[in-house]
Amino acid sequence: MGRVGLLGRIMLVLLGALSLLVIATFGIDRWQRNHERSPYPSRFPRVDQAAHIVSLLRDADPAQRPAILKAVSGEALKAEIVAAPPDEAGLIREPRLEARLLGIAGEPAGRIRAFTDAAMLHRGVDPAEPAAARRGPVGRLAAATYRLPDGQTLVVTVIEGHRSHMPWLLGQPLSLWVAVLGVAVAGLVTLGARHELAPLRRLTEAVARFDGRAPTPSRAAHQGAPEIRRLAQAIQAMQERIAGLMGERSLLIGAISHDLKTYLTRMRLRAEGVAEAGRRERLVEDLDAMTALIETSLSFARGTAAEIGRSPVDLADIVAVEVAEHAAQGAPVSLTGEEVRNATVAGDAVALRRVVANLVGNAVEYGRSSVAVAVRRTGAACQIVVEDDGPGIPEAERAAVFSPYYRVERSRSRQTGGSGLGLAIARQIAEAHGGSIVAEAAASGGARIVVTLPALA
């Protein structure tokens, strides 16, 4: 159920309710049919009715018989008086029904005859088997005859085609019509629910597109139910506040960067004027470290507010350039996949090269003897893989290393340099390009960083 959307949940509830309605209607229909045509003597309303008709006509004045016959005849039974007994061809004598008729009417044996037929015989009973030898359920009453005191014969016939008006409509079971109506209602509810949920889907798409970098967030149409319109208005106001805060943040970052660089430049000029060489070198070294730290921190902060450019970038080219620069400085870096021709993504070449520079720089710094870099295309994605044979990253800290200012103290302490922002900036840029970055264990025991970016179609 966790994967079923709101529309699917509404439809499941509706279909469940309709299914219960159909089952209940079908059950009532079957119960009524079984009740009306029960194979057991204790549930024979037609037998009891026929016995009372016999008693009524036996005791009635002969002049009143035509009126009584009209009154008792209907859709279920037909009563008539004939001069001679009817033909019993096709009928099956049912002594147990006769015994019930005789008991209710109070007549001696032989005066009433009860019959069933093959169509009304209970399922599983052999019509050729004598009625007296049957041990299973008896057949339903098809006809009964009674010789009146004046010698005429009363014939009571059960109308087998009779059905109650309640479970049948236009010749079809009511449960069938309920099922058809349920399907029609489900279709209408589906269309209506899709129409009502359309504004919510558009609002979701607008929220998914919002990243805070655009100066003016996209506006979602305020349509649909009042609750959805109020939600859209609240989200629109929140996006505008976030966009305003991000704009102010960009201005603040620019002002801080300008002012800090001005003061650091002045301090460096004054430090270079110090006569004592040892003291001058320490001051310049501290100022350079401070400048690098501030530049890195501002770059990280600026990256969350800057808009990423979108143009085709060949990952194999930028990786090859970065690897060549480290190899020229004597670093043991190897590259595979530089010949991949379809490792192209849509993004900012400068930002992506910074990701490669950070990852290769870390691997060179913490690797012991070798660094392996690979570029590859896997399906609809491109990957950059950087491996080293250094101390590696503990499994419990592989997600935390991408947090700002986080270091694995065991191997990447302050003595080894670094501000703890390299991997954080790499993740920031990768996610801004719609990709991801993960840390794994290399086969050599060191760290393995994998950057995955969506390939350009």
From TrEMBL:
Bilayer topology: Multi-pass membrane protein
Keywords (A to Z) from UniProt: ATP-binding, Cell membrane, Kinase, Membrane, Nucleotide-binding, Phosphoprotein, Transferase, Transmembrane, Transmembrane helix
Entry GO MF terms: ATP binding; phosphorelay sensor kinase activity
Pfam assignment, any one: HATPase_c
Domain HAMP: 194-247
Residue stretches making up the Histidine kinase domain: 255-457
Gene Ontology CC annotation, any one: plasma membrane
E.C. number: 2.7.13.3
Transmembrane stretches, start-end: 6-28, 174-193
Chief location bin: membrane
Catalytically driven reaction(s): ATP + protein L-histidine = ADP + protein N-phospho-L-histidine
Claim: Transmembrane helix is one of the keywords in the record: yes
Top-rank EC class of the record's enzyme: transferase
Domain of life: Bacteria
Cell compartment(s), UniProt: Cell membrane
Entry keyword annotation includes Disulfide bond: no
PANTHER family the UniProt entry points to: SENSOR PROTEIN CREC (PTHR44936), SENSOR PROTEIN RSTB (PTHR44936:SF10)
Protein name (database record): histidine kinase
Species of the source: Methylobacterium indicum
